Automatic annotation (TrEMBL):
Keywords: Membrane, Transmembrane, Transmembrane helix. The chain crosses the membrane at residues 12-36, 42-63, 70-90, 102-122. NCBIfam families: TIGR04086_membr. It comes from the Bacteria. InterPro entries: DUF3792_TM. It holds the Pfam family DUF3792. It comes from Bacillus swezeyi. This is TIGR04086 family membrane protein.
Amino acid sequence: MNEPKQIGKGILYSLVVIFALMFAGSLLVSLLLTLTSLTENSFSWFITAISFITLFIGGFISGGKAKEKGWLIGALTALCFSLTVLLFQYLGFGESFNLKQLLYHAGFMGVSMLGGVFGVNLQGGRA
């Protein structure tokens, strides 16, 4: 089993990638909203897809760094992401998650776990 320090680095690295990709996606959507006549409603599925793809990539990266137990590392990655979002939302806006957001974050956890499993298996895994 890998050291907890190595697992923590993998999760931290994947969280940085997740937030960087989320920032880039938000920038792209905001530019499209500003420069075109599109509305926010026309981007709801696009934003959701970007979110799930980003969490899959984050799980893939953390699973690849850990090299074993990808489902657990992916779940921890999604849990850290969800806790970070909850902290920003609660401390910044005074609101907690509603049922819709809980379902999204449960989906994020599932997708990130799947990404972790793929990351372990495609990065060579155990030798």
